[in-house]
Design a protein that fits this description.
The protein is mainly alpha-helical. The protein is 76% helix and 0% strand. It contains 14 helices and no strands. The chain has helices spanning 7-10, 15-40, 61-68, 70-104, 107-122, 125-136, 141-145, 153-156, 158-182, 187-195, 200-228, 231-237, 249-259, 263-297. α13 (249-259) packs antiparallel against α14. It starts with 6 loop residues before the first helix and ends with a helix.
């Protein structure tokens, strides 16, 4: 027998009045600007020239141009690599590893490592860009450690370096979430598994990771959204170059709007970023629900 949902019965419509200020703020600060940006993407607005003041609605002209723009597809692939690879996956994995190592390390060492990771997290993107630019160019720490001090790694592997910088700047926040979540895992479950002679890998896969799944999904979603907004890091380190190798969508949108004066096309590319962020968020939520159902069935 299927039980009826009780959430609608519990909801009190009088609370809508209390929620109205937040709803108005969300409408004015998010929905209206997004809707206006979508409208601008369907016009011929330019930064300078005749169309800067007297622009008009052009329908699907910019959309059709976008589908013919090879650089757009290149930027989408770079954005997925930067956001999903370096942001969602790398930052979450590194944060989880750091949190687990801190739990086993000496208190003083764990505190020092945690403080350094959090310092990287709270640094402004401009500072992170300057640090990683100095570290990865010729004569920097990274080429020197790798035994090739005269090599410019930022020029040779630009997307790898900016992605590493992005993961480095975000993993501290992920580490903080996992450190708090690890403390909530019941110790008696770990001890019971040890009494059953479960190995460390078995305890990790059967107990730790399943109990950390909500935190993992939260970290993945948050790192994804933060990576989408990390325009400053890439723009200051490479400006989208060399040769467009780091021209992710936020950078490409900025260049189209303010360097090439195509504000309408830049707004359209910005709308694509909003759609991509929404789709990735929905995908992560869907994966989380699928894993939850699979765990219940098992």
């Amino acid at each position: 027998m299927v039980m009826p949902r009780l959430d609608r019965q519990r909801y009190e419509w009088s609370s809508a009045l209390l929620l109205s200020p937040a709803a108005l703020l969300l409408l004015g600060m998010f929905v209206v600007p997004i809707a206006y940006a979508f409208y601008l993407g369907l016009t011929n607005l330019q930064l300078i020239g005749a169309n800067a003041l007297h622009y008009r609605f052009t329908g699907t002209y910019n959309i059709l141009y976008m589908f013919r723009d090879k650089e757009f597809y290149h930027s989408v692939l770079l954005t997925i690599y930067f956001v999903v690879g370096a942001g969602a996956i790398a930052s979450t994995v590194v944060g989880l590893i750091l949190a687990m190592l801190m739990e086993k390390a000496l208190p003083a060492l764990g505190t020092m490592v945690g403080a350094l990771a959090m310092l990287a997290c709270i640094l402004p993107p401009a500072t992170v860009a300057v640090v990683w630019f100095a570290v990865s160019t010729a004569g920097g720490v990274l080429p020197t450690v790798l035994g090739m001090p005269g090599s410019d790694l930022l020029f040779k592997f630009p997307m790898t370096i900016v992605s590493a910088a992005n993961a480095w700047s975000l993993c501290g926040l992920s580490m903080l979430m996992f450190a708090a979540a690890l403390k909530n895992i019941p110790r008696d479950m770990i001890e019971a598994a040890m009494l059953e002679n479960a190995s460390g890998a078995q305890r990790l896969w059967r107990i730790t990771l399943p109990m950390l799944r909500p935190t993992i999904m939260t970290s993945v979603l948050m790192m994804t959204l933060l990576s989408f907004g990390n325009f400053t890091l890439v723009f200051m380190m490479t400006g989208g170059g060399p040769g467009g190798k780091t021209n992710i969508l936020p950078v490409y949108s900025y260049l189209q709007g303010f360097s090439f004066s195509n504000l309408a096309y830049g707004a359209l590319l910005g709308n694509v970023i909003v759609v991509m962020a929404a789709l990735l968020g929905l995908a992560f939520v869907g994966i989380d629900r699928w894993l939850n159902r699979a765990q219940k069935i098992a």
